[in-house]
Amino acid sequence: MPRVVRLKSFAKVNLGLEVLGLRQDGYHELRTLFQSVNLADDLELRLRRREGIVVECDHPLVPKDDRNLAAKAAVALKRFAQAKGGVHIKLRKRIPVGGGLGGGSGNAAAVLMALDRMWKLGLGITGLLPLARRLGADVPYFLFGGTSLGVARGDELYPLRRQLRAHFVLVTPDVSVSTAAVFRRVDTRLTPRENGNTIFRFISSDLEGQPQYRLLTNELEEAALEEAPVLRDQVKKIRSLLVREGAELTALSGSGSTYFGLFQDSSRAARAREALRARGHRALQVRALTLDRYRRFFERALA
Ligand code: C5P
User: Fold this and answer.
1) Which ranges of the chain would DSSP assign to H, the alpha helix?
2) How does pLDDT run across 96-147, given as a tens digit for each residue?
3) CB 156 within 8 A of CB 78
4) Choosing from 41, 72, 78, 138, which is the catalytic residue?
5) Is 215 helix (H, G, I), strand (E, B) or coil?
6) Is 12 a residue of the active site?
7) 262 CB near ligand 1 (under 6 Å)
């Protein structure tokens, strides 16, 4: 195995998210449907003889010290495997930071998978899973990718046999929202609902023919808009434009601030992206990555 590995780490959106209650560990019991998309950060990992994990990153808002999730992943695996020497991690961010797209969690999972190979540990997804869980609730998902159901804290994963194919327009307003604060706000509104089980109902719909996207909602959305009131007005405008251009689903990803539109047709997505850009929004067009494509990417990058 070479001492240098270059790979990508992909972004995710939450197609739907249900908050079922507060857990004894202070986290929330969730049901969420994750989807990876082909928007990615670039990572370079270099083994060094000298001890220590060094992070270099081109983005001013990303911490370069031991608060960085990629660095935490390297430290955790090094300790677990009692590996010798250090690692230099170079990060080029393309995924909007703090946007609900799982950029940091994806970086951490990519570091775990890369170092597992570089240090010849042979842990694989199953062996890395407990370490990923300790790093953050979204990190385990990035060991799998594709269209996957996440339950418990969102860290118990069930990749779907039927993988979605769709195009997305991602709009990330310049507003940062604290995930912990959004979850705190959601506590008070946990009442039994009549229209629950939306994600299970969606999964049972015809995913390869006409998926019933209208079943899906993000139950963090209202709390996120209360937490960041300036977002409310922007989201209203973004949503109406996406709907006008033919989006089949519009929702906040995670706790925000990225708002997305899902399109079956790429030319419609392109029109929506252009219309949003013309109004001064930061809008990107991406497409869904299936589980197979996601796994194949890492197998090739780490072969
Ligand atoms: O695990 P992670 O650090 O990514 O989570 C960020 C915050 O989101 C947690 O500190 C917690 O407040 C909240 N959270 C939650 N329930 C989950 C996932 C996250 O309450 N299932």
Assistant:
1) 69-81, 103-118, 124-135, 141-144, 179-186, 198-203, 221-227, 229-244, 266-278, 291-301
2) 998 999 999 999 999 999 999 999 999 999 999 999 999 999 999 999 999 9
3) no
4) 138
5) helix
6) yes
7) no
Tell whether ligand 1 has an atom less than 6 A from the beta carbon of residue 180: yes
Q: Could you tell me if the CB of 80 is within 6 A of ligand 1? A: no
pLDDT band, residue 86 (cuts 50/70/90)? very high
**pLDDT grade, residue 213 (50/70/90)?**
very high
Structural domains in the chain, CATH included, are 4-161 (3.30.230.10), 167-289 (3.30.70.890)
H or E segment at 41? strand 28-48
Render the burial of 65-101: b for 16+ CB within 10 Å, e for the rest: eeebbbbbbbbbbbebbebeebbbbbbebebbbbbbb
Return mean pLDDT, the chain: 94
To test the pocket of ligand 1, the residue of 19, 28, 69, 182 to mutate (highest count of ligand atoms within 8 Å of its CB) is 28
- The conformation of residue 48, written as its DSSP 8-state character, comes to E
108/188 Cα distance (integer angstroms)? 32
The residue length of the chain stands at 303
Q: Which amino acid is at 288?
A: A
Cα–Cα nearest to 289, from 27, 38, 121: 38
* pLDDT value, residue 261: 98
